[in-house]
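Fold it.
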Amino acid sequence: MAALLSDKSIKKYKENIKGKVWVFPDNVDTDVISPSQYAEDLKGMLDHTCETLIPDFPSKVKDGDVIVAGTNFGCGSSRETAPIIFQEKGIAAIIAESFARIFYRASIARALPILEVEGVLKEFQQGDEIKINIPNAEITNLRTGKTLKGKKIHPILLNILKNGGLEKQLLAELKEKRHHEKD
């Protein structure tokens, strides 16, 4: 699973994202996202992610697509591979009514933009186009024109997203600290 440790799938941070929507229900657990029977097989995980919820998701998801979901997204076992799988599939962001705490933190650590927006699930249909402003936590359904405001990402966590993930953030801080120590 060395490929899962790579950061090639981490996209450069964008404040504004536009993409096609995939609608997911409440309580999507990490076992559905990252099926355990493929734990040692990245291609298998990518080929079968979320297929029990949306059978054509693994074959039809495109780079830049966005997931819109209900409550408790990413619940279940704490599989660090779950956000990685979405990044490998090209998901640009995940918007949900709420996230499981571990999934939320793992996504931020991997620089996968996620926003909590109350009532979002009822405002989107499969295939709608969404426009997202990450720092303002604002989303717009481009089919209906309706805009919703979500919960803003804490500035420290937003900075992690902007820096390409937790590892890159920490490396940048260490570099800065060493620079100041030399002065």
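The first strand starts at residue 16 and ends at 24.
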